[in-house]
Structures are given as structure tokens and as C-alpha cells.
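I would love for you to help me understand the pair of lines that follows before we discuss the fold together.
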Amino acid sequence: MKITVRAYAKINLLLDILGTLENGYHDLFMLMQSVSIFDTVSVECNDSGKITISCDVPDIPTDERNLAYKAAKAFFEYLKIEHSGIHIDIAKSIPHAAGLAGGSADAAAVVTALKKIFAPSLCDRAVIDICKSFGSDVPFCALGGTMIAQGTGTTLTYMPQLEIPNIIIVKPECSVSTGEAYKVFDTVDYIRHPDKNGIFRAVLENDIESVFKKVDNVFEQLIDIPDRIEIKAIMRKYDAKCACMSGSGPSVFGIFNDSEKAKQCAQRLKIYFPQTFLCSSKDCGCEIV
């Protein structure tokens, strides 16, 4: 049996770090949104007795280091299922190491496919339990849509779904170490925190304009991303309602009301930044094709 899943990327409409937990991880408050850029993940049962992975991007590991491998292992261990073997094929469209949760989305897609094959009645709580055992963004990527994520990112709250038709995402050539970004937070004496309560109320009231005004990411105060200022300046030139970094970067997204200006802006940005994507919001994290 073979199941193919679209694994959607995410952006952070708001990301705040509240502090450091006793276990060394960080206490987060995030407004997460799935977007229509997706990887295609296929899971097929076989008689190999092993979990194997193929991927069309050479730099991505295809052994037990890949979150997709960890997802399959965690699924089978959680449900105590003896499998004869599976092969996972990943076709990438989400930029790698971009702050868009591409690896987490692929892992969530594996859990989604295995649920369809082995445990169709598995509830969302069980899916979250499986996913949070190996990745903090994976539970959100499995469910997706518009959600508040708290704690280490695995405590999720369903929110009214935002409909955002015009989103531009730009991935500069540089990369960012998430671990190093959090270490910077641990060294600073002062941080300006985003308006968490304001954006929470705005989403509940479906006040989309207020949501856009409160889009923010605390990492923009902590790390310097080359080209970020220039990308945001171009987006604002085409009347972006907001422009912000996603995750710990380096990707920057802009949201537009005018679809024509969004197209023009994307064309302009693509001249300088080949990894420029024009997309929209999604109400799910994974979708079986």
C-alpha cells in the first residue's frame, strides 16, 4: 500500500520567547499558520524489514538523522506495531533550513500516512503525543491551519482559521542555526516582547487588519540576517500589510491585500532571490493526495 501526502510549510505570524525552562528548553508563545508551499511525501509498505528514505535534495540525510525516519520509528513504537518495512520518498519544494519547518512537515506527513495505513481511528491527541516525542514543530505540522503553540511548541490551541490569499516568502542564501539563535536570547538583558494578547484577540474576533499590525518575531531583535532589511523594504514598496521573519530565519514573509501587487513584488524579489514563493494560507498541515 502506498500513501502520498502533501506536507505544508508554516510561518510564524508571531513568535515570542517568554523565558528558559528548567530543562534548558525555551518557553514560547507562537501564532502559527500553515501555507500552501508543500513537499510531497510518499510512504509505501514493502518486505525489506527496514525504514528507508529517498530524497531529491542531495544535502538532506536519508538515514536515522532525518526526522521522517524518527517519525516512522516513533509511530511504530507508540502503537507497538510490527512492520515488514516501509520506504519514504520525499520530493522537496519547501526550502531547507529556512524557518519554515520543512523537515518537521515531512515527518508529520509520515505520521499522517502511517495513520492512514495502520491506525485510521487514531485521535489527534495520540498524533500529538507521537509527534512531540521527536520534534517541537511536528505536532503543529501534523494538524496545521491557524494555531497558538506554547511551551516548547507542542502545546497547541485551535484558533479560528485565517484566510490569507497573498503571502510572499523569500529564502535568502544564508542559513541560521536555531540553537545559536536561542543562545543569543540567553545572553541579552532586555527584550521587547510582541503583543501576544492583542494578536490573540484579533484572531478570535476575525479582525484580520489588526492581526497584520501585530505580526512580530522576537528573533529579529536577536540575530542579523543579511538582506532582511532589503527584502522587507521591497515588500513595503508594493504595499505589504506586514513583513516579518519566520522562525529563527532566514526566511522573510510579506502579506498583501492586493493580489496584483503581490505578483509584481514576487517577480521583483525573484530577480535577486531565486527562492521566492507566492502562496496562500492553508487550513491543514498535511493532506493526503
The radius of gyration is 19 Å. The chain has two domains: 2-159+284-288, 167-279. The mean pLDDT is 96. Residues 65 and 115 are 22 Å apart (CA to CA).
